[in-house]
From TrEMBL:
It holds the Pfam family Mem_trans. This is AEC family transporter. InterPro entries: Mem_transp_PIN-like (IPR004776). GO terms for cellular component: membrane. The chain crosses the membrane at residues 6-22, 34-55, 61-82, 94-111, 123-145, 157-181, 187-210, 222-241, 253-271, 283-301. It is a multi-pass membrane protein. It is found in: Membrane. Keywords: Cell membrane, Membrane, Transmembrane, Transmembrane helix, Transport. GO terms for biological process: transmembrane transport. Its main location: membrane.
Amino acid sequence: MNTINSQFVMSLSIILLGYFLKKVNILKESDGEVISRLIFNVTLPSIVINVFSTMTIDKSLLLVPVISFVFGLIMAAVALIVFKGESRREKGMLTMLVPSFNVGLFAYPIVESIWGRSGLKYFGMFDMGNSFIVFAVCYIIASIYSSSKGEVSYKNIFAKTMHSIPFLTYIITLAINLLGLSIPKPIIQITGILSKANMPLALLALGLYLSFSFKKTYLKNMAKIIALRYIIGFGVGILIYNLVPLDPMFKKTMLIGLILPISFTVIPYSVEFDYDTRFVGTVNNLTIIISFILMWAIIAFV
């Protein structure tokens, strides 16, 4: 078994371990929320500090968050058109599921195991652009269509963005890097130790969140969301991979990044705005399975 396949088998084994532990009631799905908070507030920022503090910024890296952000805006606009015939609340719920990506919890552990720091810096920049989509665009859509008045609290949007530890870590460490400053060595050493826990914790959390049951009434809208995300995402990814004359890691980031699962952040949004949380969770789970298979195939054969 080659290195890539062995890494995916190992990742799948940890995901299935998490699912098994949930099924035998050793762990609960609610434990996944605790692990996720630990990842997003401790281990993921630790990775960002280690990677961003020493990386060399070039034009290909700066282009990654721009593409990620613009693609998210376009996908949101396309979704609003596709779901224009749905009721107001249904339109809001379905549209918020289309533009965002799960980078930190899903992509980071696999990318780290295969490409190490060189891969993480590209996916970190991808997630920077994606963060604006997750915390601004998706939240605005969810908020506007949740009520008949179409009101949105920009104060809440700002608060959510400023309370995102990974997002703030991206911005601060990138600024430190561009200014030519350095992070104290003790911080680098501590975050280096903490970052090693990210991969197993993230994969275990994915297993705890997995669920394979859903209502048949979900099928139509689930199919539309999946078709939008993967047909457009994969198509644009292939075009960038073949037409943009930049380094291979940039191309792989675009090809893989645009077919990642839906961000987990939409689940708390669905709770906050009283959408169908079970539907949101079901679609999220399905995209995890599809993206895992596609990512495995792309990395193995491209």
